[in-house]
Amino acid sequence: MKNILIITGSNGFIGQNLTDYLLERFETIYLLDVSNNGEDQQSDNLRYVKLDITNENSVLNFFNNLKTEKINSASLINLAAKDHKVGKEGEEFNWSIDNANVDDLRNNLEISIIGTFLVTKYFCKLIVDNDLSGKVINFASDLSVIISNDSVYSSDTHKPIDYSISKHGLIGLTKYFAVYYAKYNITVNAISPTGIFNNQSEEFISKYSNQIPKGRMLKVEEIFSAVDFLLNEESTFITGQNIIIDGGRTLW
C-alpha cells in the first residue's frame, strides 16, 4: 500500500518547486498538466500526465486508472490556473474592463474553477469509495481576500479580473467541499500566498515590496511549511481554512 500525491498545474513555478520538495515524501507523485508531452519524462516515483482538467471524461478516466493502484492514502494539490506573468521586462499582459475579452474570461475561469471542481470531485470519490484518507490543498492567493493594487504595474494596466474572481471562488469551493466531506476522512483547505519572487522586473519588485509590511516579496520555499502542516496527520481536525502567507499585506 502506498501514499500518493496528485498535483494539477504541475508545470508552473510553484508546482515544480513543490514537486522537488515533496519528492521523498510520497511513493508516487502524479503531475497533471495540459502541457505535459511524453512518457519519456517518467521516473520511478514521478508520473507525468497530459490532462485537460476541464474535460470531465478525461478526469474520470485518470481516476478510474488509479483504482488499480494499491493506495493507502492520497493527497491532492490544486495549482491549475491561468498565470498572468510579470517578467524581467515587466507585465506580460495589458488588461482593462474596457478591453476585456469575454472568451478569455470564460476559458480562464473554466480552468481555475470548473477544472478544480472536477478533479476534487473525483479525488474525493476515490477516497470515499475505497475508504482511504485524503488531503486536498487548493492554492488561492492573497487576492482571495483583497483586490489587486494595480499601482505595482509600470503601465496603465490592471490585474485581469478572472484572477480575482477565480481566487475568491476557490475559497468558496474549498469551504463547500470541506463541509460536504467532513464526515469522511478528508480535509480540504486553501493556501493563499502573496506575490512570489520569480525574477520579476526591479521596478515591480520594489513597488510590490512597498505594499508588504515585511518589506519584500515571498520566497517560494516559505510556502513549504504550510503545505507540510496541512499534509500532516496532526492537522486532521483542520478543514475549510484559508492560510494566508502574505507578510502582513492583507492587514494594510
CATH topology: Rossmann fold
How are the strands of the biggest sheet laid out side by side? Answer: 3-2-1-4-7-8-9
Radius of gyration: 18 Å
* N-to-C series of helices and strands: EHEEHEEEHEHEHHE
Number of helices: 6
Give the structural class. Answer: alpha/beta
Largest sheet: 7 strands, parallel
Residue fraction in strands: 15-25%
Provide the helix percentage.
Answer: 25-40%
Shape descriptor = globular
Q: Identify the CATH class.
A: Alpha Beta
Residue windows where pLDDT falls under 50 for at least 5 positions: none
Give the mean pLDDT. 95
Describe this structure in words.
The chain has helices at residues 13-22, 56-66, 102-129, 161-180, 202-209, 224-231, and strands at residues 2-8, 28-33, 46-50, 71-78, 86-87, 90-91, 133-139, 186-193, 242-245. The chain has 252 residues and is of the alpha/beta class. The chain has a single domain, classed as NAD(P)-binding Rossmann-like Domain (Rossmann fold), CATH 3.40.50. The strands form two sheets. A seven-stranded parallel sheet has the order 3-2-1-4-7-8-9, sandwiched between helices. It has a two-stranded antiparallel ribbon with strand order 5-6. Strand 5 (86-87) and strand 6 (90-91) form a beta hairpin. It starts with a strand and ends in a 7-residue tail after the last strand.
Characteristic terms for this protein:
34% helix; 252 residues; Rossmann fold; seven-stranded parallel sheet; two-stranded antiparallel ribbon; alpha/beta; globular
